[in-house]
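Q: A reviewer asked whether we had any structural model of the full assembly, not just the individual parts. We don't, so I'm hoping you can provide one. Inputs are below.
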Amino acid sequence: MVTAPLPGAAVTSASPVTPPRVVVVTGVSRFLGARVAARLVADPRVERVVGLDPHEPSARLAGLLDGVEHIRADARHAVRAIGELGAEAVVHLAVNGAPDPQHGGRAAMKEQNVIGTMQLLAACQGAPRLRKLVLRSSTAAYGASFRDPAVFTEETEPRAVPRGPFARDILDIEGYVRGFRRRRPDVAATVLRFAPMISATADTTLTRYLALPFVPTVIGRDARLQFVHVDDALEILHRSVVEDHPGTFNVAGAGVLSLSQVIRRAGRISVPVLEPALSAAVSMARNVGVGQFGLDQIDLFVHGRVVDTSRLVKEFGFTPRSTAEALDDFVAGFPDGAALTADRLEAAERAVLDRIRQVRAAGAAALRAAESRAGAGQ
Amino acid sequence: MSAEERSARQVLPGSVSFRPESVNGHHRNGVNGHVNGKADGVPPAPLHQGVADGPGDVWDARVAAALAFLRRRLSGQYEVDDFGFDPELTDGVFHPILKLLYRDWFRTEVSGVENVPESGGALLVGNHSGTFAWDALMLTVAVRDETPAQRHLRLLGADLVFRVPVVSELARKSGVTVACNPDAERLMSTGELVGVFPEGFKGIGKHYSQRYKLQRFGRGGFVSAALRTGTPIVPVAIVGAEETYPLLADIKPLARLLGVPFFPVTPQFPLLGPLGLVPLPSKWLIRFCPPIPTAHLTDAADDPMVVYNLADQVRETIQATLHDLLKDRPDPFGL
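A: Here is a predicted structure for the entire assembly that you could use as a starting point for your response.
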C-alpha cells in the first residue's frame, strides 16, 4: 500500500495541517467515490474511512472498498453517521451527472443531487468536529449562453438558468454550499468544478458517446471542450481532503480541443444533426428509458466550455495533464471500432503520393522512349 | 541548397530508380520538409531554373503539402487556442480566399503600418460600415499581410455572430471572440493584437447618405478594457466598405421577424437574389493612426470621465483620418 509520502506532502509541510482522522465519503457505490475512498484508506494519515451510499457497489468496484466501512443509507441518515462517527471531513461525491434508468431516472437523480446535498449539509452544520467539506461540482455551473466569455474564471456568473437538468442541480447545490459557508465559516469548504472526466478505463456518459462508431454532433457547431484525466481528478480530491484548500476551483486539463478534433483524434466519424432534431431524439430516447445523453450534453456541444485553471495550479501546486494528453490516454484504451485512425490516413497519403510518382515516372519513361525513337527516326 | 530542394530533386522521377523502399524514404523526407519548412510559398525560382523539368517539382511539393494538410486536418493533429482560434486553418484556407477579395477586388492600399506594434498587446479600433462586416475581415488581412510583424488580429464580434450556426464556428476558428470585457482583457493581457468596432450594428446598418459619419461609440467598454490592461489603442480608418453594399433602406418589420438588427435593401439585394451578396468593387484605403498610450491611466479605468474623453479622442482621430483618406480617393470605384 502507499506508505511513501504523497506528492502533496511538500506543500503541507509549508503550512502544517493535520489530515482529518475520520472521513465520510458519499457515493462510494460509483466509480469516483470508490476510487477516492480507496485512496483515503491507503493513506496512513487517515484512520477511518466511512462510505455513505444507499446502493451496493458493482462487483468491479467492490474490491476497491476493502477497509472502507460502508453504511448503506442515504443522506437522510447522514446526521447520525456524521455526528456519531465524529467525522472531521466529508467528501460529497454523490452528485450524478445523468439520470440512471435503473435507479429511478431523473426524479431520483434530482432527489439525490439536490435534496441529498441539502440533507447532508444540514448534518454537516450540526457536526461539531467537522473541519472540512469537499464537494464535487462541475463546470456545468457556468451555464451555456451565446454571450458567455470564451474562458470562465471561478468568479464568472451564469448568464441564464441552464436548461440541462444536471446544470440546474449543480447551481442549486453550489447555492446550498454558499449558505453552509456563511453558517459554518470554521469549516474549510472546497468546491471543485470538474471538466468532463476521461481516462482509458473511465465509463461516463461522455466516454460512451465517444465510443460510438458514428458520433452525432450538432450541425454548424464545433464546441471547444476540455477534459480532466480521472487520475488527476483523484489527486486533486485527495489533496483537498488531506490538505487545506478552501475555496472554489476549476479542475481541467490545460488546452482546448474542438469536438470535431476530439472525434477525429478518436478515429470516429461524426454525423452532424440539426440541433432541434437532436434535442427531440434525445428527449424521445429519454422517455423510453434508453441512453443517458441529455440536454446537458447538447448544450455543451453547442456552446462549448473552457475554464481558467490558474487558481487551481497556484493553490494546489499541481498541474493536471493537458486536455490533449487526457484524450490520448482515453483513445489508447479504445483501439477497436476506430475507422479513421492517424495511421490509416498516413498510409493513404503515402499511397496517393507513391501512385502519383509511379504514374509520372511511367509518363516520363514513355516520353523519353518516344523522344529517342524520334531521334533515331531522324 | 536547402534540404527541401535536395529532397525535391531526389523525388524527380528521372533521377531515382524505382525501388519501393527508397521511394518511401524519399517521400517521407519530402513530407517532413513541408511540415517543418512551410513549403507552400517556398519552392523558389532558383529551383525552377536550375532543374530542367522544374514545374513538376513545384507541383509535387504542392500536392505533398496539400495531402499532408488534409491528413493533419482529418486526424485532428492541429492546435486551437482557448478561444478556438485555429491558426493553421486561418492561414491555409481563410486568408488565401480573403486575400483575393482584398487585393484583386477591393485593390486595398494600406498606410501607417509602422503604427501597429510588432509585439505585445494593442487594441485596434476601427470604423464599421458596409452592411456586412467585410471591413473587419479586410483589416485582418491587412494586419497579417502588410504589417512588418505579420500578426494575427483577434476580432471582437457581436453575440449575434455566435448565435448563428456555421458562422459562429468560422468566426471562432478565424480568431474572433465575443465582445465582452473578460475576453478582451484576457487577449490583451496575453499580448494579442485585438480588433474592435465600437459602432457595432449602428455602423454597418446606417443609411448610405450617412457614409463615413461615425456613429455613437457605445459605452466605451473597449476603452476601459484597454485602460485596465494598460494596452495602447491604435485608431484605424477604413475607407471603401461603405460603397460595397450601399444601404438604401432598412425593412424593420422583416428584421424583427428574422431577429436581426436590420434588413438591408441595397442596389444589389434583394433584387439580384444571392448574386446581390457580391460586394461592389469599391477602392479601399486603410490607415493605421499613431498609438495612444494608456499605461499611465491604468488606475483610471473606472473613471467615466477619463474613459469618455479617451473614447472621444479615438473617435475624433478616426473621423479626421477618414476625411483625409476620402480626399485621396475622389472616385469610390476608381483605381
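A: Points you may want to mention in the reply: Chain B touches chain A through 50 residues (CB under 8 Å). The longest strand of chain B covers residues 233-239.
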